[in-house]
Amino acid sequence: MNAVSFDCGDCIPVTPGQTVQSVIDDHAGCGECEELAVRILQDQIDIIRQRGHAARQKKWEARVDAAVAEARRAS
């Protein structure tokens, strides 16, 4: 028998005449799975923001380095 496993630990069998999608739809109201999904999405958002901050920092440092090099050449 097929079964669908969820992040909350539930493992629900797919009964005859039922589809996997219907099992997923029936489980959609699980608060535990929803909380986990929100945490995962927030973690992904945080990672993307950190990468953006790091990229902006590197660009800023490159501009500062270029300005310092230009000032040294000019003097």
Number of strands: 2
Strand order of the largest sheet: 1-2
**Beta content:** 5-15%
Report the biggest beta sheet as strand number plus sense, adding barrel if it closes: 2 strands, antiparallel
Structural class by secondary-structure content = mainly alpha
Tally of helical segments: 2
Q: Spell the H/E element sequence.
A: EEHH
Low-pLDDT runs:
none
Measure the end-to-end span: 80 Å
Shape: rod-shaped
Radius of gyration: 25 Å
* Helix coverage percent: 55-70%
pLDDT average, as an integer? 87
Short description:
With 75 residues, this protein is mainly α. The chain has helices at residues 20-27, 31-74, and strands at 3-5, 11-13.
Descriptive account of the structure:
The chain has 75 residues and is mostly helical. The chain has helices at residues 20-27, 31-74, and strands at residues 3-5, 11-13. Strands 1-2 form a two-stranded antiparallel sheet. It is rod-shaped. The termini are far apart. The mean pLDDT is 87.
Question: Would you spell out the secondary-structure blueprint of this structure?
Answer:
Elements: E1 3-5, E2 11-13, H1 20-27, H2 31-74
Antiparallel strand pairs: 1-2
